[in-house]
Amino acid sequence: MGVPSLRKRLVAGNWKMNGSLDGNRRLLDELLAQSDVQPSAARPDAAQPNAAQPNAARPKCEVLVCAPYVYLPQLADALRESGIALGAQDVSVHAKGAYTGEVSASMLADIGCQWVIVGHSERRQYHQESSALVAAKVVAALDAGLTPIVCIGELLADREAGQAACVVQDQLEPIKALGKDVVERIVLAYEPVWAIGTGLTATPEQAQDMHGQIRAFMESDRLRILYGGSVKADNAAELFAMPDIDGALVGGASLDAREFLRIVAA
Ligand code: PEP
User: Is-catalytic flag, 160?
Assistant: First the structure.
């Protein structure tokens, strides 16, 4: 069912709750040096969004990094015109107001984000985020001009019970209900929860099987569907060879510049 020429590969790093000003600087320096792209000289207006042009050395792959909120201005500055775009890891469903501790989509856009992860399994698991809330966050992100990367995926118990596809469809239902126009403006990330941070990866065949089912359910050849779950440099190429896998959401391996760029190049 896939029409790969319509879908540019995307590799997104998710730094999760890792980093420090010094550590980020080192990681960004390595990333920029090794990716053959250099940051432009700092410009005074830090609020300008990143250029987000595809990496000149790898024009077929879009690359982005999703960092903790507090470090987004640091990354916005460092990545400006680098060809590596910037994303956040979550967003408030609210536009503004008395929501202490929350960060709105327009604030993320304001400091240079173009992307935001929503519905990561760690948000669903530790913050009880429902699929309905995730869909509302998708709308909030799109309204502010951000592209949401919507995470879905089953638990090991669901897979062992033969329920993986049903669970994923249930998670997708409120997104699909937003309509085809919305579906074709987002990116999905299929991340089996049992493969996240565990070193276990779905086989390319398991991942392709689910991606094919997701694409059929969402009824879109244009929708990009990333795979996530212990993606590394040495398993990325075989995953990317699958017709319905359009890239990866990379957690742990995105904290190592060399490893991350080898995934980008896979
Ligand atoms: C993730 O954080 O979305 C993820 C897939 O993590 P990891 O690559 O470490 O499994």
Answer: no
Q: Give yes or no for residue 191 CB within 6 A of ligand 1.
A: yes
Which SS3 state, helix, strand or coil, does residue 121 take?
helix
* Ligand 1: residue whose CA is nearest its atom 4: 251
- pLDDT at site 42: 32
127 among known catalytic residues: no
Of residues 42 and 226, more confidence is placed in 226
Residue 5 lies in a domain: no
- Domain membership flag for residue 256: no
| Closest by CA position to 90, among listed 98, 82, 81, 99 | 99
Rounded to the nearest 5 degrees, what angle is found at the Cα of 193, between the Cα atoms of 191 and 92? 70
* pLDDT at res. 6: 78
CATH label of the domain that carries residue 85: 3.20.20.70
Q: What are phi and psi of 224, to 5 degrees?
A: -85, 135
Residue 44 clears pLDDT 60, i.e. is over it: no
Locate the ligand 1 atom nearest the alpha carbon of residue 189 and give its number.
3
**Residue 118 forms part of a structural domain:** yes
